[in-house]
Design goal:
3 strands; 114 residues; alpha/beta; single chain; 3-stranded parallel β-sheet
Length: 114
């Protein structure tokens, strides 16, 4: 099983240290976190959690095992087709799932060529 946590928020993170720590711990689990920011808030903290440009670290210095967060600001897709938003929201999910199974040394179930 693999889980996806979808967070739709119009606010900012008030407990960034605890949130970073929780994401780092969750990076070991079979899950991804998708955050959609709605409204005009400053979502810089959400961008920080989306570890595309660097490895996320908890306040203890522990590194995330893998990138599990995808942040998408809804305002960037306000006038775009729904499919464009869906593509952005799900863009990193296949890679995140594969990274988890590789990290766990779990081969694909169907290993026979098609």
């Amino acid at each position: 099983q693999y889980f996806i946590l979808l967070i739709i928020t119009d606010g900012v993170i008030s407990d960034m240290d605890e949130t970073r720590h929780a994401v780092v711990q969750a990076s070991k689990l079979p899950m991804s976190i998708i955050i959609v920011g709605v409204g005009n808030a400053d979502f810089a903290a959400m961008e920080f959690l989306d570890g595309d440009s660097r490895v996320l670290r908890s306040y203890t210095g522990e590194e995330a095992a893998r990138d599990i967060v995808q942040f998408v600001p809804f305002r960037d897709f306000r006038n775009a087709p729904k499919e464009t938003l869906a593509k952005a929201v799900l863009a990193e999910l296949p890679q995140q799932v594969v990274q988890y199974f590789k990290h766990q040394n779990l081969p694909p179930i169907n290993t026979e060529p098609a």
